[in-house]
Amino acid sequence: MSDIETIEAEALSAIKDAGNLAALDEVRVAELGKKGRVSGLMKQLGGMSAEERQEMGPKLNALKNRVADAVAARKADLEDAALEAQLANETLDLSLPPKPEARGALHPVMQVFEEIAAIFGDMGFAVAEGPDIEDDWHNFTALNFPEGHPARETHDTFFFHPQEGAPAKVLRTHTSPVQIRVMEETPPPIRILVPGRVYRNDWDATHTPMFHQVEGLVIDKGIHMGHLKGCLSDFAREFFEVDKAATRFRPHFFPFTEPSAEMDVQCDRSDGAVKVGEGKDWLEILGCGMVHPNVLRNCGIDPDEYQGFAFGMGVDRLAMLKYGMPDLRPYFEADPEWTRHYGFAPWLTPSVSGGLS
Ligand code: DAH
After folding, report:
1. Residue of the nearest CA to atom 6 in ligand 1?
2. 177 in ligand 1 pocket by Cβ < 6 Å?
3. Please, which residues have CB within 8 angstroms of residue 200's CB and are 6 or more apart in sequence?
4. 13 C-alpha to center of ligand 1: Å?
């Protein structure tokens, strides 16, 4: 009898002291296993008289059940504690502040690049690019600016120190050299749009030494002024997001086109701001013309077989006009207040069908 009490007390205390599942299992085996102490007591029942067995049987069974229950309870406790410890370890601190709100904005010049590319992309033009540091051939000579020609002087060119035997390299003064690079490499038909930075030694409220242009070039059989006029008039209306706007083409001179023109778009200036698509005034927005036969020949294209038109426009001024920015200089001051005010959400890609701005 006292055996039962001693074994129970010892077993319960060992169960309580078991610090982990492995230790608890050792206790279980030592008490309830085949060779365990409780099992040992149970085996003695076989050698008892019927009366003894009647008395001891229920007691031993109850002992066995209490020990088994204690093992199960301790096991559940240990498992809960292990889970708690694991959860505490893997905790996320939900009180941490979220990521700060994105503050960046797309510069209006980049927005206008995207808008122009969307409009001409819709007409089947592909974007092409060229280097900012150009040689004399691509920036001038191949574009039909002969050496010593006065048109070179109007470009206020930044020159690099000359290398032996070769004319000095330049910071490109316009995006037109990319016309040459593409025509030298690609057989017609060609339909490209060239956004890029250009450089001239000039600095006041409307001129910065680095500014942005978009160039366009179309070369194919049977291209004429009508294609140029239709394409650029459509562009003007789409860009200024108006249903109607008259355009006019004034004769002009560029060495690389013949005939050459500047395109104006109808506008109204009567209440201070410029409104495109109404009124009796004109706003000059780009230069254009039919590609000069000399330029085609310089690139190995036969002018009797292929013709084309080209155009070029200043993007900084177009952005000023469209988005009402009065001064060019803050464009390049990287003032976050200015960018927040005039900038665009970078993920809203302009498209002709979905809206430009
Ligand atoms: N390259 C000229 C400039 O920077 C702009 C230009 C005018 C480009 C007429 C053209 C064009 O392709 O046909 O002033």
Report:
1. 312
2. no
3. 155, 156, 157, 158, 173, 207, 209, 211
4. 96
